[in-house]
Structure formats: structure tokens, C-alpha cells
Write a structure and sequence with these properties.
112 residues, mainly alpha, elongated
Amino acid sequence: MDEHAAREALLAVREEALTRLADLGISRDDVVQASQGANIDDEHDPEGSTIAYERALLEALAASARARIADADAALHRLAAGSYGTCEVCREPIGAERLAARPIASRCLEHS
């Protein structure tokens, strides 16, 4: 993958994660707003998941999106430094197929 294609792929990964993070923030706000003022014993509600569970799930998904943004930023830094596409463990090239499938990869398949 050439440098331009790698940069475009990494920026796309980053933008997708930023969009997901924004959407999750809206979803979390909706859950919180829906629970305010309600006299619900959600911890004992036999009808489904609790509000606390939904909030925890949304926070876990947001943490995953933030980690993906950090991974994309780190890969962009590696690209600028000239080390993109090199395994951080063995210093051998990461396969083109792996980088095409996972542009943020910092390790070859053997060390992933």
C-alpha cells in the first residue's frame, strides 16, 4: 500500500470511529434523559436490561471507539515517521493483505 492510500485508509478509519463516538454520545444522552424523572426500579425490571446495563454497554462501546481513534492516530504517526507497515515486535514488514484489511495494524500476523 502506498503512502497516499495508507493515509486515506487511516483517515477513513479515524473518521468512522469519530462518527461512532458521536453517535454513542447521543445514544447515552437519550438513555439518561429517558430515565430522568421516571420512578422505575430498573434493577428489578423483569422486562429486560437495566438502564445501568445500557449505560455501561454504551460506555464500553465508546471506549472501543476512542481506542480505535488512538490506534489510527498512532498509525498516522508511524506513517509520518516512516515506520508504517513494519511490525513493532520483529521489525519485519507487515503483509500488504493485513494492512489492506486492518490499516491500523502495528504487528504482523505472527505477532498479533
